[in-house]
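go over this chain:
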Amino acid sequence: MKTLATVLCLFPVLVLAQTCPGCPNSGAESAPCHWLEVTGVVPDGPAAKAGVMPGDALTSYDGKPMGCRAELTAAQAAVASDSLVATFRRGQKELSFVLPKGKLGIYFAEWMNDVSPDSGAKLIAGVPNLSWNEMNSFMGALQAVGNKLGDHAGYAFLCGVSGAAFRTQFFDTWCPSSPDATVGFDAGAVALKACGLNPTWLHVSSDGKNKPQIVSAIRKSIDAGMPALAIDLIETPEWGIIVGYQKNGDELLCRTYFDKRKAFDIAQKFPFAVAILKPAGKMPDEDASIRDGFAVVSENLAAEKYGEYYSGLAAFDKWTARLREDDFTKLDSEKLSNVVQANYWIYQRLIADRKTGIEYLQLVAQKMPDLQPKTDALVALYQQEIAALEPLLEQLPSPGCVVPGWQWEQADRDKQVVTLASARLFEEQALPLWKELAAAK
């Protein structure tokens, strides 16, 4: 049977905007079946300066009705002037803003009309939506489950106490799932323990014959009011939450990072791994979990490998070596696209995770003020690391760049090698501080 790590490496983790082939009801007089909701605006970006706010819904762009990302992408490409009028719905009002062509500085969520559950459906209500603002999908899903159960440990806490916010992993064959919480060093297991949850892991067998047993376990969990964590429910293999079932379990109702509906979505696929959760008993002491987490981080930084995944400083070394030494000219477009995607996703997550790590260290400083000199020193190092990494992010090739004839130039890879070497120095300086925190009583 394939391991979870192996399966993850077989399926790329896409972080590109999800599009639909076009909304069939766009422009119809009835309520649209798709709409784009503003979930955030870039500070000082065009939309923020114009007055667009989170919660607004984009209704038209340059005179064209908007329902989905595919329509917006096409409309943006067709703009001929330097500026345009975009109309947004805010409550019962329609507001028009003059915006420059090009990037809007808006984070959108694409929504579709909710579907009604069957009369015999079992559904756990109140599990919140998942958002790419929290890019570690396992921790985001676990946070949502915790919120439903009354445990309000935040995303930053889960990522920090488990070591995920400070972890770097690199799979030697360019696996895009290297940052996944459950591969290599299992940060997911540490986070579950900190939440007082005991998982029973169920993996689909290679012949699929154990699916009925897994469905039975899912139904039993939902009937008891406990959501289940699962991977690869919709789109690509990311973690999500099973919140219900209908048709006797033939259809799973879920929350994922790819949902298009606000209430729940119906799983497109049967997950290849499921965690059935039960309370482990008494909740772990939070201070003890934090201190245990210090040892996890220092171990992750110093360890060479966990299974097939290079870790910490060794991950930086292997990553830069592959950038320097691989002959990418021998790869076909599909294989090169996977390499480019892995490189982009690991790099992007490195930045996002360290930002979350800073938030966690600030929480620790508030809770344990005697540790603040060391946590402040770590925050300063990670702030410098982020500052070194961020300028290159927009220059990195993404999978969409890979077309016949495209080459990943050595000069561009060398630039990334230099940037990663700078980041590694900050990680190396952080290691003794983590060891001191781990040793502190």
Remarks:
- The two ends are 43 Å apart (CA to CA).
